[in-house]
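Consider the following assembly input.
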Amino acid sequence: MSSETIDKTEISRRSFLSLAALWSAVLPAIALLGGIFRMVKPDVHYEESIRFRIGTAENFPVGTMKKLDDKKVFIFSTDNGLHAISSICTHLGCIVNITEWGFQCPCHGSRYNQNGKVIAGPAPRSLSWHEISQDIDGSLVVDASREVPAGTVLKLKA
Amino acid sequence: MNGLKNSGIGRFTSNIIGLRDSFLKSFLREGKPTTDLSRTAVMANNFFLHVQGAKVHINTLRPGYTLGLGLISLYLLLITVVTGILLMIYYNPSIENAYNTVKDVNYVVFTGRLLRNMHKWGGEGMIISVILHMARVFYTNSYKKGREFNWIIGVALLILTFGINLSGYMLPWDQLSYWALVIVANIIQSPKEVTDVLGITKLFDIGTFSKELFLGGLNAGKEALTRVYLLHIMLLPLILFIFLGVHFWRIRKDGGLTKPEGFEIKDSDTRYISGQERKAEVFPANKTYGLMELVKAKTPAVNRDIENNVLSWPNLILAETAVFFFTLAVVMVYSFYINAPLRELANPLIPENPAKAPWYFLGLQELLSYSAFMGGVGLPGLALLGLALIPYLDREQQQIGVWFSGKRGKYIALESLVVGSVVLIGLLAIVIKYGWLRTWWPDIPQLFIILINPGNIWVGFMIIWSLFVIKRTDSTRMGAIALFTMFLLSYVILTYVGTELRGPNWAFYWSKSQWPLH
Amino acid sequence: MRKRFYLWVLFLSGLVLIAYISLTTYKEKTPEWKKHQAEYKELLIRNAKDEDIRKRAREMDIRLQQLYLGELNRIDRCISCHTGVENPLMADEKVPFKKHSGDYLKNHSVERFGCTVCHLGQGRAVNKKEAHGIGRETYWDYPITKLEFIQTSCALCHDLTFLKDKGGEKVVAGERLFRQKGCKGCHKLEGVGGVLGKSLDGIGSQPIAYFPMRYIKGEQTVAQWIREHEEEPRRVVSDSQMRVDVTPEEADFLTTYIMSLRAEEIPKKLRRLTGARLPDEIKDEGEALYKMYCIACHGSGKESVFDDAFKRTIPAITNPSFLRVADDKFIRENIEEGRAGTQMTAWKSAAAGLTEKQIEKIMRYTTKDRPKERPTQFGYSGYKVNVNKGEEIYASRCASCHGEYGEGGIGLNLRNPVVQNADPEMLAKTIRDGRESTLMVSFGSKDGGLNAQGIADVVAYIRTLSKKEYKLH
């Protein structure tokens, strides 16, 4: 009777150890695997900042458009104010050209109207409008990481 | 009903329902490893496991016999391979970027510093574990009975381990890397010393040729970094893995690890075994399965020592897994606390003083300080040749698988250790205190320095002492023990002297705190 | 415990791994900069002027920030801790949250220039110790510049003409001292200058390992090394021959200027260097050149000086009695060819790099006090000379100062080509008349005790000196 009980605890302790050992191997293995993927994701980008200054309002007289090639953005200055439209086609990332009726992507024929709204071709979304703001010192800042609804313009303080 | 079941759609539906079982069955062809037959089958049919036998001798499972050193070396290699691939994601092998990318691994890559440490210490740990593994194989007399050639492959793997570590040392392109590269390039060039003495350098400049081959130029620069990088990540690992495959394959063909002839099973062996209950005997004799049925290949020549064999699954696999996690834990903890060194950006105008090679070569650098050729090429070449030839010069087939081949071997090893220490330390003391030939006769020809220097004298002493032991004990095995002990001893002592006792201008200092300020 | 050895190994190793994976994750998630940024965010919320700004401050996400400076090929992560460097609301906060002082950032936008181009330090590092790079165990060649030397960085992109009234007073003052203390007499800069000292091109960006720090009393930095080396050259470098005499303030200015001599090439787009030089306060160009190249050794040139470091006498080159016998050709030749075997450098364009015109101007300046009256002719060619007799006289009368082989000592070196090829007439006149204000006495006078024949014999012997073998000990 007593010997049987001892046998049972023996077994349960053994299988508990097996189980504990198994999990203490599996858990770090999973954690390490996860860590590897986390490590592969870069924490910093070796790229120019997507938040950038474009000078003061004098550079953008009302009624003009400026294409900033290296920043991939169009800056429009209208009576209402300033707005920035991305020149990156929402289909596969080509750079759109400006035309008299809006924007034309040379790669797969997507077309956008003057507000960047898609009107033809495979593009899934309209061209994005970037947030444009005025810093304390008066310089204009475009933040390509912040999208604003189409039609949002920056009213310049007189 | 039956008709529906037999119809195409019916079979398709039941295939979907039975997907899990049929997938598992295709994966584990013989079902779950719950019976002896299926356990054997796992070992034989799994690609990764089949290099090991379905059964394993209990002696192999005793940690006191193998010390797990071969496995630890393999696992350290795996750790360095995985961390190495991860580091390659961020590393850029150009002299403009190499240093910056290594810095960024330290600063802005998630766990980058830890991974770099693990890569570094894993690699250097491999040198230690491989040397200890070699010592284990040697002292248990395991290089015999058909294992002679595997010993040579082991020596090749040792050289490759050194080579991979050294080439990796040069990649960060900091001051340590650069000056180690310069030193190594000059070691490679050192046969010029001999051709100069012989006066044939103009006709046959093998030294400069080798150096150019290594550096891609006459000076360490961007060509050199490209070549070293190629060696580190491609060429040397490729060769290493090929040799490693052969190394394992031959172990399998030789019937697993060695074991003593009069093997006796002990009660304590049960703690290394699982899945088998102890009965009247220590273990019951299991039914064995002819491998012919399972793998349809030639049966390896295993010793028919059935009663002392246990199933590899789960016994061996558990032991191997445990050693893997043990190794990983040790490397991780060490790397958590100790950072891999990273000095200033390489500056060809300002040598580090002392410009030291990585620690595992500092024994050689000590020899180099006597003669570049003998220290860098002659003596290491001789030592490696001697190591490789041990199984062919000692062919006594008794006491295989026994530590030190018994009591007498233990005594000889101890005796050689003491005698060797006295002689080597004495020799080094003379050199450090009184200098050598050139100190006494400044105009002595280089030929004499090459032929008569402390390194050569020490090697000569090792050979003479071993011959003396052979003569005294009438046993080549005892001579081999004496020689090998002294070889290990000189590696340890010379490395210690080079690492700790040599300061700026390779002068002698008792400790680093006595080094003159820069 | 005796059972299942490998299970226990596996279990315990697994536990250790779990513990250290957690520790590592914790360590990675709590870097030094995060603490600073969190504190900055609180300050931002507290300092906010209105609700809108406060709202935006609350939205600020704490993350590793860096300036990717494509034009400069640098990456600066300083703003991960110094986050408020551009924020006017942070003007009165403490470092590291403080706004940059002055209005320097107005024209040097942080996005374009970053931080390390002016302040040095290690831009990539993300902890204070390594980013500032102070202390040798940081293994970084360019520790952060102390504010007292920050002007050194301005001179990287701006002319001194621009800096002189825009906060670059120290470096401008240093440059003036550099020109007037004769530094280039021994140190080459931009290809021109003597060869006794080390070239100063790019000295400000030499790594610290280039400077032997053993005898430095103060902080072990490059600037401190240069300062102490100016104040006490032979304490810092035991075999230095540097002749310099500066006040502590002057040393400070000079150090600032010398530290601004950096090798870095800032892209043309970003710098405002036109190459304009400050106008020299000294109107006479000859005088300016003399001060730049000669004054460190020769001083005013009126008197000869025995220099302990040189172990020889520096001749009095503007002394009237010298000028009386030495003609322009001889002096010009001296400047152009230097005096081999002495510290006098050959200044011709192929050697130290002065143009013929400049040498001419220096020569005009040094000879401006030449007396009108010429010495009486000696008539060397009229004597029948006896070299052996000359040797006897030389050994007894000359060797004590000029050395047994003419190698010089208290007296000048007579073996060098300029003396050997000089007009014997001039040598004879010098021996006859001596040199005022130097130890060279007039041997032709009553006390000197040499007759004209004797002088001629000695001159003849001196002209054979270069053929005698002289071994340096």
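The mean pLDDT of chain A is 84. Ask yourself how this observation constrains the way the partners meet.
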